[in-house]
Amino acid sequence: MRRAIPSPLMRSLSFKIDGSNGPLYARVYQQLRAAILSNRLKPGDRLPPTRQFAQELNVSRNTILGAYQQLFAEGYIEALTRTGTFVARALPEEMLETHVPASEITHQHLLLRPLSKRGRALVAKSPANDFFSKPRPFRCATPDYPSFPFAVWARLMAKYSRNPSADLLGYHYPAGHPRLRRAVASYLKSARAVRCEPEQVIIVPGTQIALDLAAHVLLDYGDVALVENPAYFGVRGAFMRAGLRLAPVAVDSQGISIQQLKKNRDTARIVYVTPSYQFPLGITMSLARRLELLDWAAKTRTWIFEDDCAGEYRYQGRPIPALQGLDTKNCVIYAGSLSKLLFPSLRISYLVPPPDLAESFIKARTMTDLHSSTVPQVALADFIEEGHLARHLRRMRTLYSGRQACLLAAAKTELAGLLQIEERDTGMHLLGWLPSGVYDVAAAQAASDHNVTVAPLSAFSFRRRPRGALVLGYAAFNEREIRDGIRSLKIALSKT
């Protein structure tokens, strides 16, 4: 075959096919791409026709066609009708790289693409970065991971993962797997005195998703949501995402203030409460206050969202039944989380709306993320039905009770005059009040500098409080870690 005379352009590139591995067309593609990226082939340069190029390299025309097709698919070259093939004028790397100095990116972003008002508010209320770091004393809302029966859990997960049935792999259960819904309904009836049927139970990834779902189904943009003050920051985030206006309501020694609720009777559509274990104050709502709240909600046609936060952990007597079990007017939307009882990354919580709303909630659920991962749901159904959950909770009540006692004893010895810790018979954390004039955010930062994580009460409040306090979680830490943490906290607070 008569060899073509190399074109001046290809001759200047010293283009050749080496003996490396891989398909021949891929080697041609790689060399052409490298020439383009190094600017040896410039935007607008004309490439040889495929037949001529194949003759120059002594390869088949299909090899060149394959290389050209790959370059064309990736945007490196472009073909003009009846004119030829050219290096693209806008290369992929140029479209991806901004070539803007890092110091200018933030300014340019804020100038040209500002966050929405809602976006700025969400970012401002987001937790500190150390919230997601490795737990260290006294990180709150964290269970004791090593005590979880992982051998049992691994067996149950393997049971459904080795050869899963088709219904575990597809889009089948927006409300959750039927077996888990039955297991949760049975558990809630016996352990939390919740009145519900499996058809009411909706499995969601977390309580914030449950809040978000309730807000979008029941409320309109601009409606008023009453929220305990202080409250978990995720509550504000969920309601803010839904475009609700938040009205804080004070909490006293019996729970949320009914007198303050009455001031909002003409505008409020929903009220968020944690009656079993108020987070972060640790108060249990009295029976009289519960009945008063239910009566107020029924008369004002206001929804109550009950977050049953750690209601299972009561160390004297039996756990206090849920507020929902006292509701005779179907005012209460009930939610709780199994993740905090087991391990947070499980991401399995439940939502129980009134019976006549269950179908609407389930339909709305399909418009968010369809459903939660199914295999962990059936494994968890077995975990509950085989009695592992009940046994685990009994062990954790004993363990956490001992750790709370250790924290109180160590604080009494080490923190006198620095932190006044309130004793509670519930929950997974205690609240410590700082001396007058000590700002809790500054105290929390000082503690962090000494490898201790304590949350300032201000972080959960709508406005700065007259007296600062720190939230100390104890559930995830053994007695040695608690005592060492208290000593470190003493050093930190002594400097504030």
Within CATH, the superfamily of the largest domain carries the name Type I PLP-dependent aspartate aminotransferase-like (Major domain)
| Gyration radius over CA | 31 Å
Count of all domains: 3
State the end-to-end distance.
Answer: 89 Å
Structural class computed from helices and strand pairing: alpha/beta
Strand content: 5-15%
Count of DSSP H/I helices: 18
Average residue-wise pLDDT: 89
Number of strands: 15
CATH class of the largest domain equals Alpha Beta
- What percent of residues adopt helix (DSSP H or I)? 40-55%
Q: Looking across the biggest beta sheet, what order are the strands in?
A: 4-11-10-9-8-5-6-7
CATH architecture label of the largest domain = 3-Layer(aba) Sandwich
Quote the CATH topology of the largest domain. Answer: Aspartate Aminotransferase, domain 2
Uncertain regions spanning at least 5 consecutive residues: 107-112
What is the approximate shape?
A: elongated
Main beta-sheet annotation: 8 strands, mixed
Concise synopsis of the structure shown:
Helix content is 41%, strand content 13%. The protein has 496 residues and is α/β, with parallel strands linked by helices. It folds into 3 domains: 8-95, Arc Repressor Mutant, subunit A (Orthogonal Bundle), CATH 1.10.10.10; 171-373, 3-Layer(aba) Sandwich (Aspartate Aminotransferase, domain 2), CATH 3.40.640.10; 391-494, Aspartate Aminotransferase, domain 1, CATH 3.90.1150.
Structure explained in plain terms:
This protein has 496 residues and is of the alpha/beta class. The chain has 3 domains: 8-95, Orthogonal Bundle (Arc Repressor Mutant, subunit A), CATH 1.10.10.10; 171-373, Aspartate Aminotransferase, domain 2; 391-494, Aspartate Aminotransferase, domain 1 (Alpha-Beta Complex). The protein has helices at residues 8-13, 24-37, 50-57, 61-73, 92-96, 102-112, 117-125, 150-161, 178-192, 207-218, 233-241, 258-262, 287-300, 358-365, 375-385, 388-414, 440-449, 479-494; strands at residues 46-47, 77-80, 84-87, 202-204, 224-229, 245-252, 255-256, 268-273, 303-307, 332-337, 349-352, 420-421, 429-433, 455-456, 469-473. The strands form 3 sheets. The protein has an 8-stranded mixed β-sheet, with helices on both faces. β12 (420-421) and β13 (429-433) form a beta hairpin. α9 (178-192) packs parallel to α15 (375-385), α10 (207-218) packs parallel to α11 (233-241) and α17 crosses α18. The radius of gyration is 31 Å and the shape is elongated. Residues 107-112 have low confidence and may be disordered.
